[in-house]
Design a protein that fits this description.
The complex is a heterodimer of chains A (about 150) and B (about 575).
Chain A lengths: L8 E3 L5 E6 H6 L1 H6 L3 E4 L17 E5 L7 H12 L5 E7 L4 H7 L3 E4 L8 H5 L20
Parallel strand pairs in A: 2-3, 3-4, 4-5, 5-6
Antiparallel strand pairs in A: 1-2
Chain B lengths: L1 H15 L10 H22 L5 H9 L3 E3 L4 E6 L4 E3 H14 L3 E4 L4 E7 L4 H9 L17 E2 L14 H11 L14 E4 L13 E7 L5 E7 L11 E8 L3 H15 L10 H8 L1 H15 L9 H10 L18 H10 E3 L5 E6 L10 E3 H14 L3 E4 L5 E7 L3 H10 L14 E2 L14 H10 L3 H7 L4 E4 L13 E8 L2 E8 L11 E2 L4 E2 L3 H15 L6 H8 L2 H8 L1
Parallel strand pairs in B: 6-7, 7-8, 16-17, 17-18
Antiparallel strand pairs in B: 1-2, 2-5, 3-14, 4-5, 4-13, 8-9, 9-10, 11-12, 12-15, 14-15, 18-19, 19-20, 19-21
Helix pairs in contact in B: 1-4, 2-3, 2-5, 4-12, 6-10, 7-9, 8-9, 14-16, 16-18
Classes of the chains: A alpha/beta (about 150), B alpha+beta (about 575).
């Protein structure tokens, strides 16, 4: 099971630290929190659909991938990026290197790996396949296959 | 010596490439397999170097078909929708010799398993497989598993459509799907396009039945949430007609609802059948439909009908109808018995479909030696345009045998001990490995099968009894599908004594029925008597040609119960 690692802030692609709140906190104080430019952490157990109507106010969305076997984050990423057209960064955190290919193809735009993967070539894992059978967020896939 | 065998296989493979009756992998497909092996090799190395923990490696290796048992490792190789050619079977024989102990085991889900694999050799083994378009991708783990189809797809009269082109498209779609590769539980899909359901699609997590609507358009009815195991459930219809071109988007919506809402907190309730049960089929179907609205018209998920037409050509029959002038078959009692049970009508004139049962007294059903694999591969080249199929009953089908060559084929099969005449009879028992080979099993399976076969060793009587299925599972995982057999046994242990719960009159061919429990479980000592009693009640009550399930429907459970427990 995933450890309860409380994530309170994250560094975005502009190297700025962004304060994070839970989905619950966000829903309770959308107006005041959006003016502060906070991001929202979505855990696998969260109902991501609750964010649908306030997505344009969320500075950044963080998906926690610490639980290796829990695939809900991939659906969350897909819904956010493809269906609801969320335009901000979707950061995958506490990620394991073997999850990268799925994360990036589902719509995660950047990631923080857990410490134990420091000496591994990330490119190898994120772009490990030159061919794939599905259209995906980070490539067109082999559309003609269908 | 071993290398030489591989070289031979390669040569034969290339010659077989010229004949078409299946989809042949293009360079992209092959590249995908190669890269998958490379990736797994790196993961394995990290595991062996201590850079990947046991639990994560387990999740990764299972998605590559690898089970690590106490004494040895098992690899499950997919034979997608049960279709293979001779060169592939030959390559499997070579793998059995080179990496196993000369055996392979055909499963009830159109896979083949090897039981004595060394970890250090796994990448080379997978590379050899990929050289003949075979792989072990997603044959295990909490992912979409190898897709199964009617083993007679494209061969029988009255078929609505050949399931194989759709199976191939679905196979591609679920390979390393970015969103649906880490599901709450395993996910099994079966597709049937024939009138009779040889796939048992309603005991699958998802079953697709090809059909035509009032306008004559082709589509699928979709059944979700079937499964055996400790809680046997028949899948419910969630959509009565999904046009063929929309099937991938519909499948995605089913997977999305399952991925988000499926139970992950209770190891006994991971499968989609529990979600469907908890939500109710109406609510589950509604959620799927709501999701589907967003994706139904997504061009990336629409099937391209011209590509589908190309695939249909790939799967076209490799033979043309034949007008065979009268031919004489020698009068041979054994041949006529075998023919009655093992040969079926082909839709093309001049051809027959031949079933080869792999069940042998005392050995695990589905077990084949590398020698037998090579013989079957050779015979397929000689008699069946190089093609073979595997079936849910763990037998091999020769799909296109000229009618005037069936006798010759039988003679060859007889010579190599492969002409068991009992396809579909009670001598062809489906059994899991049981506690002789499997850590999960609570009771024996194969020894019981052997004792039943010994009890019914009079072939005349077996043939008189006719079509009757006995399936034996050693535990609640129900690998032998005992719930859907005429007579099903489920092994259990009470105070260290092996007992069997008996179910009767399960079926899937024309409708899906879970077998009824006969009564209290029966000890291993008494179980063969009980089976004989059940068979006798059937024989005493049947009118001519009446099947077991028909007699059961007419007379009910009581006469069977009274005879067994009375």
């Amino acid at each position: 099971m995933a450890k309860d690692i409380e994530i309170t802030s994250v560094v975005n692609s502009n190297n700025e630290s962004v304060q994070l709140v839970t989905v619950e906190e966000w829903l309770e104080n959308i107006d005041s929190l959006s003016s502060k430019g906070v991001g929202v952490v979505v855990n696998p157990t969260d109902d991501v659909e609750l964010l649908k109507d306030s997505l344009d106010k969320i500075a950044i969305i963080v998906l926690d991938f610490n639980n290796f076997d829990d695939g809900r984050g991939y659906t969350h990423a897909n819904l956010l990026s493809k269906r609801w057209k969320y335009l901000g960064e979707i950061i995958g955190v506490n990620a394991h290197i073997d999850q990268l290919q799925f994360m990036l193809r589902s719509g995660v735009t950047s990631y923080n790996l857990l410490d134990n993967y420091k000496n591994i070539d990330e490119i190898d894992y994120s772009n490990g396949f030159s061919v794939c059978y599905q259209a995906a967020a980070n490539n067109s896939g082999l559309k003609e296959k269908f | 010596m071993k290398n030489k065998i591989i070289e031979n296989a390669t040569i034969i493979y290339h010659t077989c490439k010229n004949i078409k009756n299946m989809y042949e992998y293009n360079t992209d497909d092959t590249q995908f397999l190669v890269e998958r092996v490379d990736q797994f090799e790196k993961q394995l190395k990290r595991y062996l170097d201590g850079g990947l923990d046991e639990a994560k490696f387990k999740s990764l290796r299972l998605r590559n078909g690898l089970y690590m048992e106490l004494h040895a490792h098992m690899l499950r190789v997919a034979i997608p929708y049960g279709v293979m050619n001779s060169s592939q079977l030959r390559a499997l024989a070579n793998i059995a010799d080179k990496y196993d102990r000369g055996f392979g085991h055909f499963t009830t889900r159109q896979n083949i398993q090897f039981n004595w694999i060394e970890l250090a050799e796994i990448a080379n083994l997978l590379r050899e497989l990929s050289s003949v378009d075979l792989h072990a991708i997603q044959t295990s783990g909490k992912a979409i598993r190898n897709i199964t189809a009617d083993p007679l797809s494209g061969l029988t009269e009255g078929e609505i459509a050949d399931a194989r082109p759709y199976c191939e498209l679905i196979r591609r779609w679920f390979n390393l799907h970015p969103e649906f590769s880490w599901l709450p539980g395993k996910f099994k899909i079966a597709v049937n396009g024939a009138k009779l359901d040889e796939t048992a699609l309603r005991i699958h997590d998802l079953g697709l039945r090809l059909l035509r609507n009032d306008k004559g358009e082709l589509g699928f009815s979709v059944y979700v949430g079937g499964g055996l195991g400790a809680v046997a459930v028949i899948g419910s219809e969630t959509a009565s007609f999904v046009p063929v071109e929309d099937i991938l988007s519909y499948l995605e919506s089913v997977m999305r609802v399952y991925n988000l809402k499926g139970r992950r907190d209770n190891i006994k309730r991971l499968r989609i059948k529990f979600l469907v049960k908890e939500l109710g089929v109406a609510e589950f179907s509604r959620l799927v439909y709501e999701d589907w609205k967003y994706t139904k018209n997504d061009p990336e998920l629409k099937l391209n009908l011209s590509h589908l037409a190309q695939l249909e050509k790939d799967f076209a029959l490799p033979v043309k109808p034949l007008e065979i002038s009268r031919f004489e078959e020698p009068v041979d009692f054994n041949y006529s018995i075998w023919k009655k049970n093992n040969v079926r009508k082909h839709k093309l004139s001049g051809y027959s479909i031949v079933n080869v049962s792999l069940t042998k007294l005392g050995s695990s059903p589905g077990d084949v030696t590398s020698k037998q694999m090579r013989i079957l591969a050779d015979l397929a080249v000689q008699y069946s345009s190089s093609y073979l199929r595997t079936t849910k009953r763990q037998s091999i089908v020769f799909p296109h045998v000229r009618k005037d060559q069936v006798f010759d084929l039988w003679q060859s099969l007889e010579e190599y001990g492969l002409a068991s005449p009992h396809q579909g009879t009670l001598a062809q028992i489906v059994a899991c490995p049981g506690n002789d080979y499997c850590d999960l099993a609570k009771a024996a399976s194969i020894p019981i099968a052997t004792r039943v076969q010994q009890r019914f060793d009079d072939m005349d009587k077996v043939l008189d009894i006719g079509n009757l299925n006995i399936n034996i599972s050693g535990c609640e995982n129900s690998c032998a599908h005992h719930h859907i057999a005429d007579i099903g046994l489920l092994g259990m242990k009470k105070n260290n004594v092996e007992f069997y719960q008996v179910t009767v009159a399960g079926e899937t061919l024309t409708e899906t029925i879970i077998g009824k429990k006969l009564g209290r479980s029966i000890s291993g000592d008494e179980i063969v008597d009980a089976i004989e009693n059940i068979v006798n009640v059937y024989l005493e009550n049947r009118s001519e040609e009446e099947q077991f399930k028909e007699v059961f429907k007419r007379i009910g459970l009581t006469p069977f119960k009274e005879r067994v427990y009375g």
